[in-house]
Amino acid sequence: MTRVFSGIKPTGHLTLGNYLGAMRQWATVDQHRSEALFCIVDLHALTVDHDPARVRRLSRQAATLLLASGLDPDLCTVFVQSHVDEHARLSYLLECVATDGEMRRMIQYKEKAAREQRRGGSVRLSLLTYPVLMAADILAYGTDEVPVGNDQTQHVELARDLAVRFNQRYGHTFVVPRAMNPAVAARVMNLQDPGSKMGKSDDSGPGIVYLLDEPDTVRKKVMRAVTDSGSEVVYDRESRPGLANLLEILAACTGGDPEQLADAYDGYGALKRDTADAVIEVLRPLRERHQELCADPGHVEGVLREGAARARGIARPTVDAAYRAIGLLPAESEDGAVALNAAR
Ligand code: TYM
Questions:
Q1: Which of 15, 18, 46 gets mutated to test ligand 1 (max ligand atoms within 8 A of its CB)?
Q2: More reliable by pLDDT, 281 or 116
Q3: For the chain, which domains are there?
Q4: CA–CA separation, 335 vs 331, rounded Å?
């Protein structure tokens, strides 16, 4: 059976971009057709300036929203990264396979490092090595497919490169994964700045639809979306990015095609109204289920506990195999005898 792994970082409130670019695919497709694991990657949230209490709160909220979006613990595994030691164990081995140059070429590193420096902060070393930890997340589970928005494609490519390099040097250990992007809305843009991704860690609230926004707030944000000059409705990402973004959001929410949808409108007003309605309808069940789950935090905790136990069981043998392959002495032989005896 195909193994699917994906993750979400608790650095801010989850957005419509997270939902349309990744989470919806996980709930409606991936968990039904594959052995799927979905992870709240909390270690990744420590790579930038962070408030410990906020990370804890956002981790809990992300877990609750994943379940509210339809992930079913009977069909898939939902867990928190820091509950499974294998991620950090494998990350170090992969740091011994990755190169400094490779890390410095990562687009997200360049962008985030520049942003941190602009704010007068220092750049954490973990921000540079973050893609290696992400590769460890993926490779520890023998993952075939990684469903993500297209901002993560370069990171998944790195995971592929590291898997191939490790296998060539030390013998076949890892499955080589591939990124899977949704057909539409693989990159939802900020409504106020259609040149930038709608990102949960950004500061510009009015351009970001959060999954827990009230319907009125969603409507206001969509109606105030920046559109391009011109009045004709056409789908062209290059010259009309604001309009293309709205058409993609509408298409993703209604199951349509952005180009065909463009033909159905002759003005921006109606397009914005329909897009707002469609987004509100997509988010409604999610908000309702989130509220129910919040009333029962013990349930969410139980799901995460069981998820971590299951995830550990899957990751452990692969990470142990990587430790052996790279030349580290096993702590214990298969039958539990002390390694040195077995190695003699
Ligand atoms: P993160 O937390 O930024 O985003 C989670 C998922 O949401 C997608 N996404 C978007 N898709 C479309 N439009 C947008 N505006 C948008 N914003 C976010 C992301 O592509 C992602 O699929 N490094 C990852 C987390 C991670 C991970 C992993 C993912 C860590 N380890 C292993 C997959 C496998 C990240 O920062 O995602």
A1: 18
A2: 281
A3: 3-181+296-343 (3.40.50.620), 205-294 (1.10.240.10)
A4: 11
